[in-house]
UniProtKB/TrEMBL annotation:
It comes from the Bacteria. Keywords: ANK repeat, Repeat, Signal. This is Uncharacterized protein. InterPro entries: Ankyrin_rpt, Ankyrin_rpt-contain_sf. The lineage of its organism: Bacteria, Pseudomonadati, Bacteroidota, Sphingobacteriia, Sphingobacteriales.
């Protein structure tokens, strides 16, 4: 019996680096219980996959609020960037219907105007996705509407390209009031 316990313990100890990749598999499978188990076994919540993405980024871009909450409770780096320079906030902002997810992330004080390698900020990502609700939410917390990407375009430029009247109204309201930081 002692041998079995010792061998099991050694097996777990030597497999920790392998389990780090399994957290990504668990997130992909939307397996909250496995993510919770792996975190309880000491998996580094800031580990990165081959694209440089963290578990938080993968959970955020796929809309998995429960997993995002578990990871945020582990004091993960909310401003970590993948190889493309994306943060969890930028990835979540590019998805529609993520207001609850954004709320979780924003309350951990990310850099709202962090830029990826293309110069895209969270508010530009939301505008590209045509997501007026996310743009308004990010503005409420102080994201700049004046930030420009490497194509020299701000969020309002993408709204004009899409002829998105709802998004234009949100962004024009911020310009009309002189409130370009959203606050």
């Amino acid at each position: 019996m002692k041998k079995t316990i010792i061998l099991s313990g050694l097996s777990l100890l030597f497999s920790l680096p392998l389990l780090a990749q399994n957290i990504f598999t668990a997130i992909e499978a939307k397996d909250v219980a496995s993510v919770k188990f792996l975190l309880s076994k000491g998996i580094d919540a800031n580990t990165k996959d081959e694209q440089g993405a963290t578990p938080l980024m993968n959970a955020a871009k796929t809309g998995q609020e429960r997993i995002v909450l578990l990871l945020l409770q582990r004091n993960v780096d909310v401003d970590a960037q993948d190889k493309d320079g994306n943060t969890a906030l930028i990835l979540a902002s590019a998805q529609k219907g993520q207001e609850d997810m954004l709320n979780l992330i924003v309350h951990h004080y990310p850099k709202l105007d962090a830029k990826n390698n293309e110069g895209t900020t969270a508010i530009i990502a939301a505008a590209k996705a045509g997501n007026a609700a996310t743009v308004a939410y990010l503005m409420k917390y102080g994201a700049s509407t004046q930030a420009k990407d490497k194509q020299h375009k701000a969020a309002i430029d993408y709204a004009r390209e899409q002829n998105n009247t709802e998004l234009l109204a949100v962004l024009n309201n911020s310009e009309a009031t002189g409130n370009t930081t959203g606050k």
